[in-house]
Write a structure and sequence with these properties.
alpha/beta, 38 helices, phosphoprotein, Rossmann fold, 6 domains, 33 strands, Probable ATP-dependent RNA helicase DHX34, elongated
Length: 1136
């Protein structure tokens, strides 16, 4: 890259003057580009401290020009005093100075072209000029070294002044004597940054520190790396969900997820006082039980002293190092309660005027020369957006504020803007959620505005939904927020509530373990064999209802059996660091050669929605996004969006950022999907769930050479960007739009290649992490998914999401699009989320077909007969102002319930089915019902058996044991897939409705005292029927109970027989439906291993279309019919 052009160099280039090498040597000019290039070739090679074309190279030439001006000025002053002295722009290195100067005490040496044998580089350079250049380079290095030592001395003074410093030796001594140590200190006392460094100084070389949030990991790694004089990626690194800077030389690593413990000597669990879910669990376990693979692991639990009494009593068996108080400057607290207006309601937006009044008071009371930024605590993203809009308008008018949002949904680059410096005379106004209470420390905060509110996600175990609600904060949180204003000097805290409100606050926040779902925690506890979760000694035990709901959910997912022990799939799910639903999808998808689409869908469902809020109200964005929408559901829409984005990425002529902006898509979320997709793929490979056919094919030698060249260039771009981003001081720019961007690029002159000029660093990282050709191939193949593959993929998603099902309301067909209502088993009246694809086209969910009829001849929509009833599988049920179904996919109702339900109950002829105790299905023909039910039993048994064998086989391979289980063959998987598709394609009319509460209470006939019925060959496989102890009827399998439903015809169903002719042997006799199936499956002339369900080779199923129709067997033609009396007479006349 050419160096920065000076005024002289720019004028010559503008006149098309380009000196040659000989001209540059003959007419020496330090500002000539060719001269500088010759010197850079000689001194700034790849292995040198300063590399050619780097940010450091530009900084050197800037220093060199200043040094020239300084030397010229000094020389001119000497000439005025002593005109006889010779003129030198820079004294030669070999010459001795005439007078002593402290600047000449440089303890450095630089190897140049004449001393290191560089194969002729610089051989033609004048020796005097080389000496002058080396002298200037020494001055530059010495100047930088002195600056670094000055910063280091200041840094050491600041570290020594931290409250935690006086406890450093005590912490190390206690850790030597005990395996578990509790360190308690106020937020801001320095424990998060200093304790890892104390361990490093003491000789520990493998230290892991867990943090609850990714932004804390990144900021702490940068700070500790700066204080320990090591850039992160070497001695200090971080590892978050989608990024890692750790290397083989890393000694301290900050993580958001649980580390692999055997490789560490010390584990630091930070922010224990925040009471996160997994923080309340480990302290209750003995280290030997909690970390069996690392029995010598040292554990440090770090907590704030806000609730030291609780932690001290709980950790009485472990030593507690406490007393580190934050050195906080005086803080003035001003209570400004807001009067509630009678016209306001809960649905109205937050009033931003109180926050603007605080900005105005700061502008009037404090002059702009006095530094000090403002930190505003708001409850959520919606409130931040409301205040942000108003504050930006005020800031554009006063030109004295830069307004920045801060919440977890922002990208890392946008979050880092809050650490940038505001221009002189301008203050930062940071609008933040509670993320800035403890996880993020922002220097320069002098003013704090506390709204007194926080939004927290709570879990309702009865309704099985997540509820995002706004609460008053606790007194402890209020003190945490106030303390943010007194870190660098006296501060002011504006509390927008009354002092009496503060006195009424709860002392401490509710721990997370008492307000979230416990599925993953219970699964982890089961895998670690720590005992019954109900009796585990938590710091504060969770509600018993939450534990019972979690255990029941894991049983429904197949992770636990009836005795609450881990199943094979449960054992594997416990090893995968993903959500239970996502892990189940990955496991099921790996079985059916659907790994690529399942990887993409699972990754898409694991991140926040990529669709922006503004795009929902933009007709242009909606029109551009419409070709990507799928009428199958939201997962398939996200699937299409990701694949289309990958195709755009592969076309170098197209800009993916503009493509996303035009469709209202946040590209940052797509990058997260790609990163998570890669992690999921690596998990499957590590656990042996990807077959050889699914592995990556090796490219030819030319392709590998091209890839290496491209990756080398990308690494160069990334390195140059990191050098520029890490060394340039970032100053926020003040623009009319108040976008809060940083203007270091605008003031630093031209950037090196890749550090600017429109190069997207996220795109560079994306291409380094992923093989774009493989992603493009996967995206191209996804566009060619057949109808059969799509149906099989829906089965995989449906089973993974089960039991999260919703049934449409019976009267949805007469409602508007926005008024569609759905019911889950525990929650009625749920609606579609505004981002759901079905919200704009709900007609695809209606069971409309021409032959639809009612089961009793009426036209009641609630009992409509159809073969196209559908259910919604959803990822989550979220309640804000309404209960919303989030990320839905539609699946066939009857076939899905028969394959997935954990409880199936039938009446005597199996024409009435109840799934999971809340969904009733009425089938028009009992024979078809029995046939379909028997087929579902066989398919479920084969599916479960194949899955268990596959998991057992992979577990034996990982443990390198002798393989005892026969792996599932591709032919067996193909046969199972074919039969599943045939089963889901069966067309049998039925009605679907949700049972009322009273009907559910009187659903079963009750315990029976009659003995077990004899075995019916072929009907229920080899099952032996036994009376059910509570429902009545007969238990066929662990999920199917036969003849347990109450009905008016139950007393006579066993003896109701109609004439029937066997299609195989010609037997004609009056038989019940069960006797028909039993005879047909045991008939010696019946074909063996026929396809299951309604696709079996059998006569056409008779479908009742009128209540007057009765079974009729014609002796003349030997056929069976369903005829009314009139139709019987008409048929008999045909044989006269």
């Amino acid at each position: 890259m050419p160096p920065p052009r000076t005024r002289e160099g720019r004028d010559r280039r503008d006149h098309h003057w380009a000196p040659s090498k000989e001209e540059a040597l003959e007419k020496w000019d330090w500002n000539c580009p060719e001269t500088r290039r010759l010197l850079e070739d000689a001194f700034f090679r790849e292995e040198d401290y300063i590399r050619q074309g780097s940010e450091e190279c530009q900084k050197f030439w800037t220093f060199f020009e200043r040094l020239q001006r300084f030397q010229n000025l000094k020389t001119s002053r000497k000439e005025e005093k002593d005109p006889g002295q010779p003129k030198h722009s820079i004294p030669a290195l070999a010459d001795l100075p005439r007078a002593y100067d402290p600047r000449y005490r440089i303890n450095l040496s630089v190897l140049g072209p004449d001393t290191r044998g560089s194969q002729g580089l610089g051989r033609h350079l004048p020796a005097e000029r080389v000496s002058e250049f080396r002298r200037a380079l020494l001055h530059y290095l010495d100047f930088g070294q002195k600056q670094a030592f000055g910063r280091l001395a200041k840094l050491q003074r600041e570290r020594a002044a931290l409250p935690i410093a006086q406890y450093g030796n005590r912490i190390l001594q206690t850790l030597k004597e005990h395996q578990v140590v509790v360190v308690a200190g106020d937020t801001g006392c320095g424990k998060s940054t200093q304790v890892p460094q104390y361990l490093l100084t003491a000789g520990f070389s493998h230290v892991a520190c867990t943090q609850p949030r990714r932004i804390a990991c990144i900021s702490l790694a940068k700070r500790v790396g700066f204080e320990s004089l090591s850039q992160y990626g070497s001695q200090v690194g971080y590892q978050i969900r989608f990024e890692s800077t750790r290397s083989a030389a890393t000694k301290i690593v900050f993580l958001t997820r649980e580390p692999s413990l055997p490789q560490y000597e010390v584990l630091i669990v930070d922010e224990v006082h925040e009471r996160h879910l997994h923080n309340d669990f480990p302290p209750g376990c003995p280290p030997g039980r909690l970390f069996p693979s690392a029995p010598d692991l040292k554990v440090i639990l770090m907590s704030a002293t806000i609730n030291i009494s609780l932690f001290s009593s709980y950790f009485s068996k472990h030593p507690v190092v406490t007393g580190a108080r934050e050195a906080c400057s005086p803080i003035t607290v001003m209570y400004q309660p807001q009067e509630a207006e009678p016209t306001t309601s809960k649905s109205e937006k937050l009033d931003p005027r109180p926050f603007l009044r605080v900005l105005e008071s700061i502008d009037h009371k404090y002059p702009p020369e006095e530094r000090g930024d403002l930190l505003v605590f708001l409850s959520g993203m919606a409130e931040i957006s409301t205040v942000l809009e108003a504050a930006q308008t005020y800031a554009s008018h006063t030109q004295r504020w830069v307004v920045l949002p801060l919440h977890s949904a922002l990208s890392v680059a946008d979050q880092d803007k809050v650490f940038d410096v505001a221009p002189p005379g301008v203050r930062k106004c940071i609008l933040s959620t509670n993320i800035a209470e403890t996880s993020v420390t922002i220097d320069g905060i002098r003013f704090v505005v506390d709204s007194g509110k926080v939004k927290e996600m709570s879990y309702d175990p009865q309704a099985k939904l997540q509820r995002l609600q706004e609460f008053w904060i606790s007194q402890a949180s209020a003190e945490q927020r106030k303390g943010r204003a007194g870190r660098t000097g006296p501060g002011v805290c504006f509390r927008l509530y009354a002092e009496s409100d503060y006195d009424a606050f709860a002392p401490y926040p509710v721990p997370e373990i008492r307000r979230v779902a416990l599925d993953s925690l219970v699964l982890q506890m089961k895998s670690m064999s720590v005992g019954d979760p109900r009796t585990f000694p938590f710091i504060e035990p969770p509600p018993p209802a939450s534990l019972e709901t979690a255990i029941l959910y894991l049983r429904d997912q197949g992770a636990l059996d009836s005795s609450e022990a881990l199943t094979p799939i449960g054992s594997l799910l416990a090893q995968l660091p993903v959500d239970v639903v996502i892990g189940k999808m990955l496991i099921l998808g790996s079985m059916f050669s659907l790994v690529e689409p399942v990887l993409t869908i699972a990754a898409a469902l694991s991140v926040q929605s990529p669709f922006t809020r503004s795009a929902q109200s933009s007709p242009e964005c909606a029109a551009a996004r419409r070709p990507l929408e799928s009428d199958q559901g939201d997962p398939f829409t996200l699937f299409n969006v990701f694949n289309a984005w990958v195709q755009v990425k592969s076309e170098r002529s197209r800009n993916s950022r503009k493509w996303c902006r035009r469709r209202g898509i946040e590209e940052h979320r797509l990058y997260e999907m790609a990163n998570l997709r890669r992690q999921f793929k690596e998990l499957l490979e590590d656990h042996g769930l990807m077959t050889g056919a699914q592995a990556t094919q090796v490219a030819d030698s030319y392709s590998r050479l091209q890839q290496r060249r491209e990756r080398r260039a990308l690494h160069q771009l990334k390195r140059q960007h990191e050098e520029g981003a890490g060394r340039r001081r970032k100053v926020l720019r003040l623009q009319e739009e108040q976008d809060g961007g940083s203007s270091e690029e605008d003031r630093a002159g031209p950037d090196p290649p890749g550090a600017g000029d429109g190069v997207d660093i996220q795109d560079v990282k994306f291409k380094l992490r992923h093989d774009l050709a493989q992603l493009q191939a996967a995206a191209s193949s996804a566009q060619d998914l057949s109808r059969e593959q799509l149906a099989l993929l829906k089965l995989v998603l449906g089973r993974g999401l089960y039991p999260q099902l919703a049934v449409p309301d019976a009267f949805n067909s007469s409602r508007k699009d926005s008024d569609q209502i759905f019911h889950t088993q525990a929650k009625q009246g749920a609606v579609l989320h505004p981002t759901c694809v079905f919200a704009g086209s709900p007609e695809v969910l209606h069971a409309q077909e021409p032959e639809a009829s009612s089961c009793d001849g009426s036209r009641d929509d609630k009992d409509k007969m159809s073969s196209k009833h559908q259910l919604l599988s959803f990822v989550s049920l979220l309640e804000t102002n309404k209960p919303y179904l989030v990320n839905c996919v539609r699946i066939p109702a009857l076939q899905s319930l028969l394959l997935f339900s954990r409880s199936l109950d039938t009446n005597g002829d199996c024409s009435r089915l109840v799934a999971d105790g809340w969904l009733e299905l009425q089938l028009a023909d009992s024979e078809s019902a029995v046939r379909l039910l028997a087929a579902s039993l066989r398919l479920r048994a084969r599916w479960e058996g194949a899955l268990d064998r596959q998991l057992a086989h992979q577990a034996q391979r990982r443990l390198e044991e002798e393989e005892q289980d026969v792996p599932v063959s591709p032919k067996e998987v193909a046969t199972l897939s074919k039969e599943l598709l045939q089963f889901t394609a069966s067309k049998i009319p039925y009605s679907l409705r949700r049972l009322t509460g009273l009907e559910a209470q009187n659903l079963y006939v009750g315990p029976q005292t009659i003995p077990a019925t004899p075995h019916l060959p072929g009907l229920f496989g080899s099952s032996t029927l036994s009376p059910h102890p509570t429902k009545g009827g007969y238990a066929v399998t662990d999920f199917l109970t036969y003849n347990c439903l109450t009905s008016d015809t139950d007393l006579y169903s066993d003896c109701l027989r109609t004439f029937w002719t066997c299609p195989h042997c010609g037997l004609h006799a009056p038989l019940t439906p069960l006797e028909r199936i039993a005879h047909e499956n045991s008939c010696p002339q019946a074909p063996q291993d026929g396809p299951p369900g309604a696709e079996e080779a059998a006569p056409e199923t008779l479908q009742k279309t009128s209540v007057l129709q009765r079974p009729f067997h014609c002796e003349a033609c030997g056929r069976d019919f369903l005829f009314t009396p009139t139709e019987v007479l008409r048929h008999r006349k045909q044989h006269v």
